[in-house]
Amino acid sequence: MRRLTPSWIRVPVIFFIIVGLVEYFVDSGDQPAFIAQPIILLFLVLVLIILIGVEAIIASMENILYQSMDEEAKVRYDTSKVKTPKLFIWIRKIYLKLLDSKPIEQEGEIILDHDYDGIQELDNNLPPWWLYGFYATIIFAAVYLLRFHVFNGSNQYDELKTEYANAEKAIAEYKKTAKDLVDINTVEQLTDATSLANGKKIFMTNCIPCHKADGGGGIGPNLTDKYWILGGGIKNVFHTISEGGRDGKGMIAWSKSGLKPSDIEQVASYVLSLQGTTPAEPKEPQGELWVEESPETPTENATQEMDSTAVDSTAVEMK
Ligand code: HEC
User: Fold this and answer.
1) Which domain holds residue 59?
2) What is the CATH number of the domain that holds 254?
3) Cα(first)–Cα(last) distance of the chain, in Å?
4) Does a structural domain hold residue 239?
5) Which of 198, 200, 210, when mutated, tests ligand 1's pocket best, judged by the most ligand atoms within 8 Å of its CB?
6) Tens digits of residue pLDDT in 30-57
7) Three-state DSSP state, 288
């Protein structure tokens, strides 16, 4: 049957368009969608079967129609021409325009009069696609020359510098907001004055009814001694403050009562800064003596060193 494309081209083309669309719209991470979700493979197989089925039905219907025609109609059908689609005609016209070459029948008009052993030369016009491309490069070169050599536009080093500065800004911005991403694994005991001052403010607002302003303890335990019911050290203290104490004791989970992780990190650091101070009316020690594990264990040291080199390696030397 005479359609523009044979079915062995049409079916795969439509099929792969559908595969592409599925891949585009289904979020399947870095795996192809039909591997990540086998149901999609089933869907695609069904689509393929349906496409082939449709082709088969159309072909057999055409065949039936053809067979039911009388001889004269068959001949007319066989000799009728497939109409070239408008788009193809248009593309061909544009192509010929871009070449601007003489058709072979008119070449006699442009033949040059020299002749070397039968080799002759045509004086064709320059193809417009080439000519205008050439003009474009001239304009580009002029603009380029003015911009970068006369007016000293920013070169690659400058661009690197700007991008670097932007990236540093973005990192600073990220760190500001990422503060609240601290959790039990990343929490650190802060020692800078601002953090401790913030921690103190939070402590004074929320904690003194039970722990007293100097941490000496009341309803809650003494926070200045080395004895901890729920464990000392920044991680345990952070955990206690965010998740609360034992049920019914009165120490609530402050992460659920409006303190952000960064607040808790600060107030926990403040609480630990009270270690060793002498409150006015200290409550007797409760819990167990907490001995801080030495932070200078070899493994930690190693990772710290690795960290510092990792930081260094991001420092790009700039000229
Ligand atoms: C309603 C009274 C109350 C308030 C308010 C309160 N606490 Fe407590 N806190 C307690 C009690 C009671 C305990 C003991 C919990 C237990 O035994 O499980 C405790 C335990 C603690 C502990 C663990 C002490 C240990 O020995 O393990 C820390 C740290 C702590 N509180 C910090 C705070 C901070 C910081 C605040 C303010 C954000 C605060 N608390 C507010 C009553 C309170």
Assistant:
1) 7-79
2) 1.10.760.10
3) 70
4) yes
5) 210
6) 888 888 888 999 999 999 999 999 999 9
7) strand
